Amino acid sequence: MKPTLMLLPGLMCDRTVWEPQIEALQDEWHCVVPNYEFASSLKAMAHHVLDEAPDRFALAGHSMGGRVALEVMRQAPERVVRLALLDTGYKALAKGDAGEKEIAGRMRLVKMAREEGMRAMGADWLQGMVHPDRLDDEDLCGRILDMIASKTPEIFERQIHALINRPDGGEVLEQITCPTTFMCGRQDGWSPLERHYEMAELVPGSEVIPIEEAGHMSTMERPEAMNAAMRKWLA
């Protein structure tokens, strides 16, 4: 019986984000991508992951999925045999002007999704999500936009609510004892590589693997490099 690898998608994402890794790893791992689109908090998303997972499993989270993974570690660290956090963060919403600016930016996209549709919102959001050199890659951008367009503004608003109300994950990181790797596109402008080194300092023995020539959607942008990083982590 193959061990289970839980793959947690990020904001407005689903199995599409993980397809290259599932294809590369499915001979050795039972890959499961939970769907927590019904949930409006990271805590509820993590609870759903734990309900769907076996007693022991490997866990990888991308973007918002990385924050869900930290909530899984908060709720049931003893069940996770190894952890990978990709293109993500750990801090709560900043106080003051910085936090207000983030909320305003996120709510602008929610308004756009409701008034102009999910694909239009996705096209705007995509500008900062992939390596600048890939914005004219019709296949890559088309797959990302198709994924976003398959969601609803209601799902988007629930997930934005979850992110705005995210808890701080610093204490969780400090308590992690399982083998842990951080992976991030070197050109990720949304969740910078430097932040992953910052997180790694909180987790003894952890490792950071930069994915070269990739932005925030690193699993799709550079699948071969990400597959190699995942294999290294899982070994």
Automatic annotation (TrEMBL):
One Gene Ontology MF term: hydrolase activity
Keyword Zinc: no
Hydrolase in keyword set: yes
Ranges of residues in domain AB hydrolase-1: 7-229
InterPro entries xref list: AB_hydrolase_1 (IPR000073), AB_hydrolase_fold (IPR029058), AB_hydrolase_sf (IPR050266)
Record key words, sorted: Hydrolase
Superkingdom, taxonomy of origin: Bacteria
Protein name, per record: Hydrolase
Originating species: Saccharospirillum salsuginis
